[in-house]
Amino acid sequence: MQTLITDSPREAADFINRGQIVAFPTETVYGLGADITNDDAVQRIFLAKGRPGDNPLIVHVYSPKEVEKVAASIPETARKLMDRFFPGPLTLVLCKQSRISPLVTAGLPTVGVRCPRHPVTRAFLRECRHPVAAPSANLSGKPSSTDWKSVHEDLNGKINCILRGEQSAIGLESTIVDCATEPPRLLRAGAISLDELRAIVPGLLGPAAIEEHAQPKSPGLKYPHYAPSAEIRLCGEEYGVCEGGKETAWIGLSPPPEGAAVTCRCDDAGEYAHRLFRFFRECDREHIRTIFCEMPPPEGIGQALRDRLRRAAEGK
Ligand code: TXA
Ligand code: MG
How far, rounded to the nearest angstrom, does the alpha carbon of residue 259 sit from its chain's CA centroid? Predict the structure, then answer.
């Protein structure tokens, strides 16, 4: 299959409207989309990524108003979160309308809905006739793609089109909140922190409450994620030092250690998040064996970063 690369949101949307699958930029990470009303196209997303069929997709809508097209009802707490954070890097899990295909939701009675903020994403979604189901645009198990070249590396020849944009500003996937239960609970940390969510919904449950459940509430959380081929070792105050060496790399906020072959020093947690997944991929290209990742403090996006770094370290 030929994968067309375009800068035109309208041309990319035409592919979606013809039942094809398209990678597109968002402020979090790149997505791989299909028309939610087209089961064949949705099925092809799973094939292209090698994604397990029991892992549901997030539905992307152009405007907050369109949430009503996919959700059966919108509880008061969800409304408040939408008013504050849509459009933006937040996904809400809501009871689904019966017409939403079980392929999209992996048979769950709920649907994850997100209204992205990035202008190119919005221009693209506005041209699509229906909401767009999209997971991150990477091969299953690999780090999410935060630039179009990473999408190309994983999916060239397997998808119909890549809508080319800039490197994703945030660089980590959206915050996910389950609003189908009362009180709502955080399912995945992201750029919108627990404190920011609780400023709007004070009773919102944090990740500690999730761990009490034997079954992960978000099916995707049980799969290994975010992992490059290199081994990830955590370092920093609570974790010990980075041992440099010619096949090692380091990323963090402190001055880089001596001896690591590739290093990436970031000014703050925001820059760390922005660069992390691309750095993982660069390290794989350089045949790095071990990547030392300095744990950032758990404030703001630092919480989400710590979550992704822990998962990446567990992945191997
Ligand atoms: O920032 C993002 O969220 C990006 C961009 C493209 O929007 N998307 C993304 O999708 O990260 P994905 O498929 O890589 O991760 C979605 C996560 C999975 O862990 C999935 O299990 C969970 O969301 N999810 C989707 N629908 C759900 C539902 N109804 N209930 C619980 N979890 C759900
Ligand atoms: Mg993903």
Answer: 33
Residue 156 annotated as lining a ligand binding site: no
Two tokens, residue 62: 């152009």
Whether residue 56 has its Cβ less than 6 Å from ligand 1: yes
136 in ligand 1 pocket by Cβ < 6 Å?
yes
CA of 255 to the centre of ligand 2 (A): 31
The residue written with tokens 């034997």 in the block is 214
Residue 201 near residue 77, CB atoms below 8 Å: yes
Round to whole Å and give the CA distance between 271 and 265: 9
| ipTM of the complex, rounded to two decimals | 0.99
User: Do 180 and 110 form a contact (C-beta atoms < 8 A)?
Assistant: yes
Q: How far apart are CA 67 and CA 92, in angstroms?
A: 10
Closest CA to 115 of 89, 83, 77: 89
Identify which ligand lies nearest to the alpha carbon of 188: 1
Assigned token pair, 52: 């397990």
Span 71-114, pLDDT tens digits: 999 999 999 999 999 999 999 999 999 999 999 999 999 999 99
State whether the Cα torsion 190-191-196-201 is positive or negative: negative
Sheet holding 161-163, edge to edge: 4-6, 161-163, 22-24, 31-35, 132-134, 58-60, 110-114, 90-95, 175-178, 185-188
Domains along the chain with CATH numbers: 4-222 (3.90.870.10), 231-314 (3.40.50.11030)
